[in-house]
């Protein structure tokens, strides 16, 4: 064992330290069978990645490891990690730089530190482990990387420091971008959204990036997501980066991309293009298959390149297609069903790809094994533009094709499919030509109309005989805001997914799982039914029906283009309709969905209804899509469950919005909430975690804070980060910065220049928030010396906030200009919307009760125990209400009792509290306002209104009846209760008479006087056309006539 003279906290690791470690290993390379490097966890993945590139043609094992708990503690992971690393380095033939942690060996340049406080601190999101250690060592030999040539191991002991790592975030300023692309920087790793996207509506960003590439800078595009990779030109927003000359980093980790870029840039003997390209494939094929014959190598590589060409077409990757063709792939190669690359491009509708293939000699009249030509495929897809392009290059229909087309035209005429007929005309079909029985398309159209009329009559009779249940008071109304995103996208002429205006709702109405057409038709006869609503089919999970309206935004956005202006617009649109609907669903693209959810969670203060954000990874109109399930479940949750938070629903789970992160580019389970349990899990049933739902801390109405500060930044610390980059982030107009530090909140303690810049910024009044780069875990200050120093600079701990939550919360707090600097700092460290882990926990005696239940009832299933304890706690809550025991009520609610639990008479705990007039207990619950009106308790009405209660649409009929009865009976105090509750005193009944009409007809001058004092409308006419004055004149009520005058 060799101990370094100066032991380093890994936060202080820099490029020079990597080189020293590499040189020390190389110095003893021939003397040892393997090597173990003991290293701190914070930058271990950076070091492992750097060493993996510096050691060229390595033939021995280098294992990096460490521990989360010091090895000298009674309980530590250090001993197991060290022993296993020694056994692997010395006993297994794995010639790579690797990382061993938590009983798994990973490829070093594939690892990331994902947890600040878990013993399984590392993961390899896009690559399987090389070894898993249990009772035995299970080696995945196929996964081990093999050298591409037979040369001796060589150390490239140079690394360029002139690199940067920049994370894109909404409304990132041009000045920050420009700072990263200034000399001496030679290369930048860009962490973009999702599959490799940045805002396409930000020409300033694209201009800066394009100019940097033209100056010879290498810009590498990787995803911010934990899993998945950059998919070139999948979306329009990602296509622009490719066109700027940005290089795809595919599924590289940030650590690997930064280290590889540093390594490549240090190879001064290479040209710019050589640095960008990767030419090792031929050598790898020759070595792997032991091919020595040049002719055989050409034959084998031809097969490989053809396979890669078909793969590239399948992924819609124009750049990869061009590369494979340049390397010698056959442009007319066929897959297993006989489809060529041109067939595949036509099916995807990628005009750019089709034109490129045709220009480069792709055969246009070629058929699959099923007899389909590219032209026939284009006809099936109704793509007129592609049809015209293929015909331009000589495409024509064979005799067999013409028979198929004739059958298609006959079917289209019978079904009234005008779109298909237009397609066939474009393909050259003669519409007047008769078929084999002498009928042309006009005959088919007339026959179809007769059948259609008959089927409509049959359907109408069926609808009448099979009536559906009236929605009535069991109806819940949900507003859906469709802002854009993958869920409603279609492919454009280039095969790229883009939003399409006006298509979404019309297509949704044709999906039976999203719209119950029979129920909708049944309701057409109801007065005042809004036909723009859609009706969700009945769901067994809820005893209510959900009707919903879709508002589609005028300009549909790719979520990569979202900024704080769009956040404010979404929030204002919800607030505008807040009292009209029971819940809200926002359809949003996935790339910045977590940013938007976090922003909305802070902007809505004291929210009392559910706002669910969702979207999909695959468009909802594709045969296979996650969009339908996500939308249906979101509607049911927003309308049927009482979860007054801004949430995200994805992959059968509902998460708190400000706790979510997009973790995968290509998995349907794209989101996760690393530091907070899901609020709802959807399986056969909806499993609601009631204890996890965030409860407001004050009693006030919902209020929208429609401001967000743009002057915020998000800076990720990386080894050897330059002081100039840090300085740029801390310059005006920036007012606050979120610092993504290593591990539990550390930055290099030996970099006085960084501390000076940060300390100076804080002294100028800037708020700097420290969060961890790890996916899971929290900033714990000061756990290490490196963390203590940053805390002493005045940097605020962000605890376990996500980058999205920290950035949006900082933007929200800074926009509160009425607060002092200290109040803003205090708000940043306070849990205001559930964005921080709540440190409170169930007391020991509470666990004792739960344990006793499990023991007494012999419950071994955790799920069953939760169900039983909920029932018990809810029963105890009802008991506490009946005995006016405020302390017990609070205790039961804290332990997870259902605040809406009902007794045997169906009365909720709040109902009982209101009947008893118990103000403190009412403050613990929610708002059946009608009960308080019945009791004429103005104090409780005022309290309920203060915390956001309002009369919903389903209350219209009982409110109208109460108004009518009060006006007829002369009960002024009841009218005052209704007014205090927000009732409209002009509300008409079923015959159009207002309370003023009723008061006049029943000769109640006191009520007339009260209503007039409240400014009611005197000119309203009932269904017979009479105003209140007309009624008073007919009844000769002189005193009331004088009042009305």
UniProtKB/TrEMBL annotation:
Residues 162-269, 711-820 form the Asparaginase/glutaminase C-terminal domain. The active site is at residues 41, 590. It is an enzyme of class 3 (hydrolase). GO terms for molecular function: asparaginase activity. Keywords: ANK repeat, Hydrolase, Repeat. SUPFAM superfamilies: Ankyrin repeat, Glutaminase/Asparaginase. Residues 4-143, 477-692 form the L-asparaginase N-terminal domain. Pfam families: Ank_2 (PF12796), Ank_4 (PF13637), Asparaginase (PF00710), Asparaginase_C (PF17763). CDD domains: L-asparaginase_I. ANK repeats lie at residues 337-369, 991-1023. InterPro entries: Ankyrin_rpt, Ankyrin_rpt-contain_sf, AsnA_fam, Asp/glu_Ase-like_sf, Asparaginase/glutaminase-like, Asparaginase/glutaminase_AS2, Asparaginase_C, L-asparaginase_C. Its EC number is 3.5.1.1. GO terms for biological process: aspartate family amino acid metabolic process. In the N-terminal section; belongs to the asparaginase 1 family. This is asparaginase. It comes from Danaus plexippus plexippus.
């Amino acid at each position: 064992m060799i101990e370094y003279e100066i032991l380093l906290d890994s936060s202080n690791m820099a490029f020079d330290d990597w080189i020293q470690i590499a040189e020390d290993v190389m110095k003893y390379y021939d003397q040892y069978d393997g090597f173990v490097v003991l290293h701190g966890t914070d930058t271990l993945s950076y070091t492992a990645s750097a060493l993996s590139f510096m050691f060229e043609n390595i033939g021995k094992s280098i294992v990096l490891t460490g521990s989360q708990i010091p090895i000298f503690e009674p309980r530590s992971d250090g001993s197991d990690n060290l022993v296993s690393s020694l056994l692997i380095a010395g006993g297994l033939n794995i010639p790579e730089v690797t990382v061993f942690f938590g009983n798994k060996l990973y490829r070093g340049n594939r690892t990331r530190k994902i947890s600040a406080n878990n013993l399984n601190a590392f993961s390899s999101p896009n690559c399987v482990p090389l070894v898993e250690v249990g009772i035995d060592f299970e080696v995945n030999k196929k996964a081990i990387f093999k050298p591409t040539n037979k040369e001796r191991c060589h150390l490239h002991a140079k690394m360029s420091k002139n690199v940067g790592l920049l994370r894109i975030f909404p409304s990132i300023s041009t000045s920050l971008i420009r700072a990263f692309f200034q000399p001496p920087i030679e290369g930048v790793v860009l962490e973009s959204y999702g599959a490799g996207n940045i805002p396409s509506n930000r020409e300033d960003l694209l201009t800066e990036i394009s100019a940097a590439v033209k100056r010879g800078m290498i810009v590498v595009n990787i995803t911010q997501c934990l899993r998945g990779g950059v998919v070139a030109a999948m979306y329009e927003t990602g296509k622009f980066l490719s066109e700027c000359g940005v290089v795809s980093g595919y599924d590289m980790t940030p650590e690997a991309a930064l280290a590889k870029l540093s390594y490549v840039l240090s190879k001064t003997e290479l040209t710019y293009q050589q640095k960008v390209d990767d030419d090792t494939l031929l050598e790898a094929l020759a070595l792997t298959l032991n091919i020595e014959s040049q002719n055989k190598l050409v034959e084998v590589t031809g097969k490989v390149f053809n396979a890669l060409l078909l793969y590239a077409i399948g992924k819609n990757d124009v750049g990869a297609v061009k590369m494979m063709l340049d390397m010698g792939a056959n442009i007319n190669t066929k897959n297993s069903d006989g489809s060529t690359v041109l067939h595949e491009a036509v099916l995807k509708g990628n005009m750019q790809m089709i034109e490129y293939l045709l220009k480069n000699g792709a055969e246009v009249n070629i058929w699959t094994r099923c007899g389909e030509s590219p032209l026939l495929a284009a006809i099936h897809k109704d793509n007129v533009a592609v049809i015209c392009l293929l015909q331009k290059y000589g495409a024509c229909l064979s005799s067999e094709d013409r028979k198929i087309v004739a059958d298609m035209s006959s079917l289209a005429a019978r079904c009234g499919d005008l779109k298909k007929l237009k397609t066939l005309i474009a393909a050259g079909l003669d519409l007047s030509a008769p078929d084999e029985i002498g009928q042309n398309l006009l005959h088919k159209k007339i026959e179809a109309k007769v059948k259609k009329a008959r089927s409509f009559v049959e359907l109408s009779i069926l609808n009448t005989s099979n009536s559906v249940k009236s929605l009535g008071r069991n109806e819940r109304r949900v507003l859906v805001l469709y802002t854009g995103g993958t869920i409603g996208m279609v492919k454009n002429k280039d095969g790229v997914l883009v939003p399409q205006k006006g298509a979404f709702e019309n297509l949704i109405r044709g999906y039976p799982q999203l719209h119950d057409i029979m129920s909708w038709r049944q309701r057409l006869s109801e007065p005042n039914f809004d036909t723009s609503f859609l009706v969700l089919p009945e769901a067994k999970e809820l005893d209510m029906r959900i009707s919903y309206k879709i508002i589609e935004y005028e300009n549909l956005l790719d979520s990569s283009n979202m900024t704080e202006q769009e956040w404010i617009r979404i929030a204002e649109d919800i607030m505008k309709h807040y009292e009209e609907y029971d819940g809200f669903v926002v359809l949003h693209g996935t790339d910045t969905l977590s940013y938007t959810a976090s922003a909305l969670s802070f902007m809505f203060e004291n929210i009392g209804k559910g706002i669910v954000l969702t979207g999909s990874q695959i468009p909802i109109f594709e045969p296979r899509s996650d969009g339908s399930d996500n939308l249906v479940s979101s509607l049911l949750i927003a309308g049927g469950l009482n979860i007054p938070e801004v949430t995200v629903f994805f992959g059968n789970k509902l998460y708190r919005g400000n706790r979510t992160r997009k973790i995968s580019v290509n998995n349907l389970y794209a989101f996760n909430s690393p530091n907070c349990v899901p609020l709802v899990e959807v399986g056969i049933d909806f499993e609601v975690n009631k204890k996890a739902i965030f409860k407001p801390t004050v009693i006030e109405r919902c209020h929208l804070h429609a401001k967000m500060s743009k002057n915020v930044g998000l800076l990720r610390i990386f080894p050897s980060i330059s002081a100039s980059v840090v300085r740029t982030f801390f310059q005006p107009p920036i007012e606050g910065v979120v610092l993504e530090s290593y591990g539990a909140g550390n930055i290099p303690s030996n970099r006085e220049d960084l501390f000076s810049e940060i300390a100076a910024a804080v002294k100028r009044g800037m708020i700097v928030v420290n969060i961890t780069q790890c996916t899971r875990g929290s900033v714990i200050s000061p756990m290490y010396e490196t963390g203590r120093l940053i805390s002493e600079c005045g940097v605020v701990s962000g605890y376990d906030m996500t980058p999205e939550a920290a950035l949006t919360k900082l933007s929200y707090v800074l926009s509160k200009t009425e607060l002092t600097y200290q109040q803003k700092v205090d708000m940043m460290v306070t849990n205001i919307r559930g964005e921080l882990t709540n440190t409170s926990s169930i007391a020991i005696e509470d666990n004792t009760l739960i344990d006793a239940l499990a023991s007494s009832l012999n419950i071994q299933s955790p799920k069953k125990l939760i169900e039983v304890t909920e029932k018990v706690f809810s029963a105890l809550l009802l008991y506490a209400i009946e005995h006016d025991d405020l302390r017990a009520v609070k205790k039961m609610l804290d332990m997870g009792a259902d605040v809406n639990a009902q007794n045997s008479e169906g009365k909720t705990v709040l109902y009982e509290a209101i009947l008893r007039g118990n103000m403190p207990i009412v403050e613990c619950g929610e708002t059946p306002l009608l009960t308080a009106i019945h009791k004429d308790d103005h104090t409780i009405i005022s309290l309920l209104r203060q915390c956001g209660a309002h009369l919903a649409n389903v209350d219209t009929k009982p409110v109208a009846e109460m108004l009518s009865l009060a006006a007829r009976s002369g009960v002024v105090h009841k009218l005052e209760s209704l007014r205090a509750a927000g009732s409209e005193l002009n509300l008409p009944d079923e015959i159009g008479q207002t309370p003023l009409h009723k008061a006049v007809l029943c000769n109640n001058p006191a009520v007339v006087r009260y209503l007039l004092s409240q400014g009611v409308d005197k000119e309203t006419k009932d269904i017979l056309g009479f105003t209140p004055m007309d009624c008073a004149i007919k009844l000769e009520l002189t005193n009331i006539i004088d009042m009305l005058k």
